[in-house]
From TrEMBL, chain A:
Transmembrane segments: none annotated. Residues 131-230 bind DNA. The modification 4-aspartylphosphate is found at residue 52. Keywords: DNA-binding, Phosphoprotein, Transcription, Transcription regulation, Two-component regulatory system. The keyword Glycosyltransferase does not apply. Pfam families: Response_reg (PF00072), Trans_reg_C (PF00486). InterPro entries: CheY-like_superfamily (IPR011006), OmpR/PhoB-type_DNA-bd (IPR001867), Sig_transdc_resp-reg_C-effctor (IPR016032), Sig_transdc_resp-reg_receiver (IPR001789), WalR-like (IPR039420), WH-like_DNA-bd_sf (IPR036388). Residues 3-116 form the Response regulatory domain. Residues 131-230 form the OmpR/PhoB-type domain. This is Two-component transcriptional regulatory protein. GO terms for molecular function: phosphorelay response regulator activity; transcription cis-regulatory region binding. The keyword Isomerase does not apply. Signal peptide: none annotated.
From TrEMBL, chain B:
Residues 104-115 have a biased composition (Low complexity). This is Lipoprotein. Residues 93-115 are annotated as: Disordered. It comes from the Bacteria.
From TrEMBL, chain C:
Its main location: membrane. It comes from the Bacteria. It is an enzyme of class 2 (transferase). GO terms for cellular component: plasma membrane. It comes from Micromonospora lupini str. Lupac 08. Its EC number is 2.7.13.3. Residues 264-478 form the Histidine kinase domain. InterPro entries: HAMP_dom, HATPase_C_sf, HATPase_dom, His_kinase_dom, HisK_dim/P_dom, HisK_dim/P_sf, Sig_transdc_His_kin-like_C, TCS_sensor_his_kinase. This is histidine kinase. Residues 197-249 form the HAMP domain.
Amino acid sequence: MPQVLLIEDHQTVRDGLQLALTRQGHTVVAVATGEQGLERLRTAASDVVVLDLMLPGMDGFEVCRRIRQQGDLPIIMLTARNDDMDVVAGLEAGADDYVVKPVQARVLEARIRAVLRRTGGDSRRPGPERPGLHQHGALTIDRAALVVSKDGAPVSLAPTELRLLLELAHTPGQVLSRQQLLEAVWEHGYLGDSRLVDACVQRLRAKIEDEPSAPVYIQTVRGFGYRFGPL
Amino acid sequence: MIRAGRRRTVSRRRAARMLLAGGLLLTVLTAGCGVRPSDVITGRAAVSGPSAGPGFYLISHGELTLVLRATKPSPGPSLPAATLALLAAGPTPSERSAGLSSEVPPDVAPATVTPSVDEPGITVTMSGAVLPLSTVAANQIICTVVFAVSGQGSAPVTLVGPDGTRPPWPCPLG
Amino acid sequence: MTPWHRARAMALGLRVRLLLAFALLGVTTTAVVASGSYFQARTVILQQAQDAAVASLTDQLSKVYPVASLPPTQEELDVLAQSLSDREVDTVVRYGELWSQRADAADIVTPELRQEVAGGRVAWQRVERYGTPVLLIGTQLRFERSDGTSVPSGVEVYSVRSLVTEQQSVDRLAGLAWVTGGLSLILAVLLALLAAQGVLRPVRELGRAARRLGEGDLSTRLTVRGVDELADVARTFNDTAGTLEHQVGELRRMEADARRFVADVSHELRTPLAAMTAVTDVLDEEADRLPGDAGQAARLVSQETQNLTQLVNDLIEVSRFDSGTARLALDDVDVAAAINATLRLRRWADRVQTDLPSGVIARLDPRRLDVIVANLVGNAFRHGTEPVSVRLRAEADWITIEVADQGPGLDPEVLPHVFDRFYKADTARTRSEGSGLGLAIAWENARLHRHAGQSGSLVAGNTPDCGAVFTLRLPRVAAETVDAGGVR
């Protein structure tokens, strides 16, 4: 039974989402502020965080960053439709996915399931699985244990970042378009937001590349998408 | 269209006027250059001066001509009378060869020259007849007298002879 | 304006006219002054020369007196003429038919001069001899009488004096006048250029400022210099521009207020809508289980909540265009695949005839392309008659997408308003068929894609065989949005 932490300051929205998600079979803990949410995470575990960006006191971006500092807990942002900059900033702060308010419960629920599938416990989905150790330059990818290490030192990756890396490393030297990656990693329909991919690539590069501005592992192929290597 | 046409005519007219003005200016400038021939300009009266001797009038080509002689006139009762004597004597050979002649008969001298009595002018009383004298001869005498008598520039001269008196007459020469 | 007209306009331009006027003024003034002083000087020079010559001649002649004998002999005449001649002066003496020797000068003695001399006065005349000007002086020799009158002696003296020296002086004067005229012309032209510069600079500035104002830069002002008429014009221009700026600013402020109000209302509506939308699924699920009216009411609330959400979303979208905060999220997209995905997602794939060549890759915002195509096809289904067709064509720099239906087409009166917000062609149309903003948003989305200064376009029209056709034109490679607020 996935445990969902819902951080939303408007009470009616909070109640409505809690009601709907609970009916979908989730255990929902709803809090009104970012501080309460972080406090809750310290005392009890959650599987996924649904986070409103517009919060009184500590805002959603800060909450996002703090959760990311502590671990790889999946985060789904609730954002207003007119705030493009918010989307980009939220993704840079480490969110895995976002939905635009007003959102129907079943849409949010589908995103929650998709993001949970990316986490280790629920990753037995069909896809580019080829168990075993793979060495790519200084990078070692253990597809069985879902552990990535660089020069022997383990690299801490959020679930979405890990899935993206696995997806790209599965076919080294082959270009994958953003839409392909969106469908494979985020399980979005055709018209996903390609900024999800770009933001995630940025975060991933910051963790595995020696020189994020001159990437070696995840290369941009202008006009097409991304490619792993060639090294 | 009409406006444009009118404007064009106006500007053309203005251009023509400017051309005309420029042309006029140039004509004046070029035509007025240098020293141009002129009309006759008259100044003061012609040069005049004294004569050294007695002068009397002879005829040259039918006209009265002043003749001066370098010789002093013989002393006599008066200068005009002496001059009249010279006139009556007629031209010298050299004068004659120069084409001078006289119609005055030798018998007019001697004569006396006096101011007229009851009118302005000069009266010449001669020895010979005065009525048969030709007009030219009379003029010779009148002008010679007028030239000789000072202060009587255009005074009429009355010739008196034994046969009568000619009416007063001025010298026709200016 | 033909090139000939432009050339004429330039030829008669202010600069040229000023130049001509100044040059004409300069030349005229110089000509008048120079020619005036030239003529004056020439008269003075000639008069002095003539007077001196006459004086010299009469002076010498007075030494002839007293005259001893008349008539003169040829020898006497020659001697007299000799004594009156020198290097510059050539003199002849005449007595009746008798002329002194070297009588060549006699040829040029004019009849009118002789007539004047015969009248008893000193007379002179300038004539031309062998191409050079000479001065001809003639006088009688007269005898003075004691009463002041004189009588002619019959002797006439004519002296010929060259005026070449005077001619040279006059020529020098003329040359000087020409040089002065030329210099003053140059000076006039220079002054004209300066004046033209002085007059034309403010005029040019005024022209530039007016153009800038016309192009919409209402903050344009001129620097007012001096107190002349041009300064007045500049001041008037500034006042006008100021008034204009103020009023336009006022209008813009009011419009912005109105738009901000719409945006604010939309945002305020979003929070309650978010709560309602969250539970529409619950309502839908429960509706079936609710008895009669309650179930119907639940479905109605759920449906209208979704419609209201759509309307508010559209309003927010429109207000983003108005405020210029709309941004493109560019991606390289296979256009045919994107259109197919749009149709597939809305389950229209079977109902639409497509002509979509594959392999057309464009760099654009796929979400906005989806919005445009969905709105156009949805509109065609609502107002046209099936079959609806979608056609893609690619050029070098642009792609064209045509959405056509087989309906009655668009009324010519409707055509200009198709993209207006909330425009209802059919007054009987009900609200539930769309927010009324779909085509307006599609239009704005098309314009947001820009390439090389040109923006994309969406045009409505009719096909030859009746039926509405919407033509979308987007750049092959859209520029990254810097600031592309669609202002209408």
